[in-house]
Amino acid sequence: MRIAILAHVRQRIAEPFAGGMEAHAWQLAAGLQARGHDVVLFASGDSDPRFTIDPVVTQHYELTFPWAEHRGSQPLIAHLDAGYAAACDRIAAGGFDVVHNNSLHRFPLEQRRTAMVPTVTSLHVPPYDALHWFVSSSPAPRHRLTVTSARQLAAWWPEGAPPEASVLHNGIDVARWPYVPRGNGEAVWCGRITPNKGPHLAARAARQAGVRLTLFGAIEDPEYWQAELAPLIGPDIVYGGHLDAQALAAELGRASVFVFTPCWDEPFGLVAAEAMACGLPVAAFDAGAAREVIGDAGAFAAPGDVDGLARAIQAALATPASVPRERVLRMFTHDHMLDRCEALYHAVIHGDAALAA
After folding, report:
1. pTM of this prediction?
2. Are residues 152 and 32 both part of a single domain?
3. Edge-to-edge strand order for the sheet containing 119-123?
4. Measured distance between the N- and C-terminal CA atoms of the chain, rounded to whole angstroms
5. Are 237 and 89 part of one and the same domain?
6. pLDDT digits (tens, 9 = 90+) for 144-191
7. Domain count across the chain
8. Which CATH number characterizes residue 243's domain?
9. How far is residue 238 from each of residues 34, 104, 161, 178, 275, measured CA to CA in Å?
């Protein structure tokens, strides 16, 4: 198939990944390409050159409009509208069999566009006002929608999802996350370093549990870092930088427990699944889809409960490394995700809902 992947352009689709959306788009493009599909990645022009890139914008917009997304910036909205309108027009004229839309932009959802090119839209965020109406009015014979968890299916459609919507769990390429059966007794945390990811709470809980913690990830919010995390850094709380997948997998493999601290309605939690693939049980806040992803491969605390999270770290350390690894192999492999994607593509091309099951 000739497949257009339409990405979000806040960050570049390249390592080291800014977050789960960028990692997902990269893995999707790489996996489909490896399966012999003709893939064009519509993303920021500074994305990974190993792919055929058709730029939505010249460079990722966080570089030129830092934090503007959170302030409702009209120049940013106009910039993205122009980029996505032109990209959708190029996709319509490009002879594509299907477009996999990960953009979180309203234009690819319009029925006049999905009528021209069969579309699968994946929603990687909880419902929010700027997109919710466009999503709810978009199901059509040539448009399927996916969310990353059952939790998000209920959040987007609390009165029941339409037949065109389904759960598509993120998938882990387990070859990139090698299994290590025994760690060094320490904890790790990774992700975007922002308040809604809660690394300051992970640090406090690890210190309370008496377990050394290393934090990995991009410092997306420097003011938050200086106010909440820099004062905690010391011999037992370490910042390890922002690493590519190979280096991060090696660091995860050395540890014994992963700490996962979502402070929002986390749609999936790709970093937790990646750690589980390496054999790390997870101590987590029971927020968003955390329990759906982690299951019996860890221990939970109430959201924001540092004392409870400290206890969960100690409890998770007793979980055999084989448990999280086997859960990933059973539920969250890259091949399983790609199989589902291909089934969805065939279904939307042929207008047959049964093919997507």
Report:
1. 0.92
2. yes
3. 52-57, 38-44, 2-6, 98-101, 119-123, 143-147, 165-167
4. 20
5. no
6. 999 999 999 999 999 999 999 999 999 999 999 999 999 999 999 999
7. 2
8. 3.40.50.2000
9. 37, 34, 43, 23, 18
